[in-house]
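Minutes, project check-in
Item: structure for the 557-residue chain
Input as provided by the requester:
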Amino acid sequence: MRDLLDLLDRRAADGSVRYVRLDSSARNAGELTGAELARRSHGLGARLASRWPATGSTYVPIVARDPLAFIEAFFGVLRAGLVPVPAPGMPHTHPGHARRLSGIIEASAPRAVVVDTPEAAAASVLTDCPVLLLEEVRAAAAPVEPCAGGVADEVAYVQYTSGSLGAPQPVLLRQHHVLAHLAQAAEAFEETAESVSVGWVPLYHDMGLVTAVLRPLWSGYTSVLLDPFDFVRDPSSWPRAMSDWEATHTSAPDFGYALCTRKVPGDTGEYDLSRMRVARSAGEPVRATTMRSFAEKFREAGFAHSAFAPSYGLAEATLTVTTCPPGRPPRTRALSAAALRKGRVEESVAPADVQEVVSCGPPLRDTRVEILDPDTGAVLGPDLVGEVWISGPQVATSPDGHRVGGDLGHRTGDLGFRDGTELFLLGRAKERFQRAGENFYSVELEAAVAAADHRIRQGRTAVFAARLPGGEDPVPVVLAECRAETEREIDETAGRSLARSVVSALGRGMGLPVSVVWLVPAGTLPVTTSGKIRRGSCRDAFEENAMPTIHRYGQGQ
């Protein structure tokens, strides 16, 4: 197999792979077979190639909310010998999409941008770029002989990271990285031509592109695609689609499973999720409580807790690095939170000193995972917390073509430990607090903040270190969004009481003294296009005093 175009042509010849787009009611709103996709990609590729003969790696961002249009444009750009760059599909209405697309354009200096609607083409962020409307390009393309395709070392696409810690960064993925990963994933997740996937993760994200487009293409199965905005508006559309299409595979961040648990109404016995073999959870910290709650919520629908496959991955590894094997219930460990803060892994012996962590499984085939001391670079043994380094055939190169990382591979910036061959993650190195020789992780602190009071929005809290006016050393700061329906109830007294609950949850419950808490309106905290809190932007807004608040508690008020 030379490249993705060779793979597409093979699927067109054998009549396998099908992409299905669902409407806002989770009904079939269009399909694209492998044969039709190959035909369209030849026409689109010929039109693009005739206008801009490829000379080296020429970037072309793809801006398409319609998933079938995105897939067609992706392979058409590849067929032209150009480099597709997945980009957000709604820059004309979504500020986060416009901001991310602006960064992509600035960083990639694209030859052109392909869009699927006139509204997207008119977005202000695109005013200085050549814009090609897919419908017009499609109409102008004349049939041509099939293109020969690329070679193994050519670029497949450029994937931008989520940008939760800063500006999104480009990751250059070559054909051999992607093909190697697709073979690894098909084996690890037991995918066959009879598999059916249902997903809602946006296709411009690595999880959406790989799990909903490329992996179905590799194994030749049906991929059913929900609009992410439709899913957030009506979370029941996801289990309904999985039931209707007899899904065997799905993939989503913890947020998606948690949203279904909270928002899907009534009896779930109307759904049939008994065929689900792999429910991959990745992209953000995997929580045992979320998996248990989802499994209980959909137990009457036939969903098995053992279908969950906690995984670890990142764009620099195409997608997945480690995953739990299908059919095995997720493995968790109840550890001493105090010991973890000192970098040690010890079983909890006191109910008040427990942190439950989830295994993300062993590495994929031919993939190596090492835990290194982030300060000395020494390789650490089992049950010691350090930084995760990875290497493998799916690990990408930097934009200038050099391999990411050194001899040991890629330095991920994630912290965790190994238990045998399995990887347990704790958080990001840049999201770690160090106080009196102990380590605290933002994701765990933020979960404790959200649990402190029902008026705080789940998943919409930020804990970070920032300097106060006149201060020398950074101090822990908490920003917490309040639920919209409770904002009017929070007067000065109620705000002080709520903030003290947060201080108590972190101080007494986690051992981290906090003296600054800002309660902010719903929708205030900056997030990435995938919904992750942008802690760096939160810190900037705090230090610049540029964030609206409901109540300010402690220093910095």
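Outcome recorded: The chain has a mean pLDDT of 89.
No further action items on this chain.
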